[in-house]
Amino acid sequence: MAEGGEEQPKPATQEETQETYKVVQVIRGGKVQMQEAPVKAPGDGEVQVKVEACGVTAADWQLRHGQLKLATPPFVPGFQCSGTVEAVGDNVEAIQACYY
To answer: Phi first, then psi: what are they for 77, rounded to 5°?
Structure first.
């Protein structure tokens, strides 16, 4: 207890402080599932984008149904996205964290 008999707040655990985002994945058999994943800091040469909108195209449909062999499940469809650059990793020179 702190001075005056007040209880000190407990420090947050890793689980309580870890920010997450929702992701739709294509899993085995072309099934789709939504799950939450932890937000990770961008690595070397990477940027972190908070996606505001994402288009799913015919290529995504073909990937999901195994007609294109560019990805194997599990994978996240949708490569036509727009949003906010929230963070940049090391060695990223052409993009800054800001609104795009």
So the answer is: -80, 165
Query: What are phi and psi for residue 27, nearest 5 degrees?
Result: -110, -175
Per-residue pLDDT band for 100 (boundaries 50, 70, 90) equals low
DSSP letter for each residue of 11-73: PPPHHHH--EEEEEEE-GGG-EEEEEEE-----TT-EEEEEEEEE--HHHHHHHTTSS-S--S
Alpha-carbon Rg of the chain, whole angstroms? 19
> By C-alpha distance, which of 44, 47, 41, 21 is closest to 100?
47
Contact, 87 vs 44, CB < 8 A?
Answer: no
Residue 93: burial class (beta carbons within 10 Å; 0-12, 13-18, 19+): exposed
- pLDDT, tens digit (0-9, with 9 covering 90-100), for 6-65: 555 554 444 555 899 999 999 998 999 999 999 999 999 999 999 999 888 999 999 999
Q: 22 near 34, Cβ under 8 Å?
A: yes
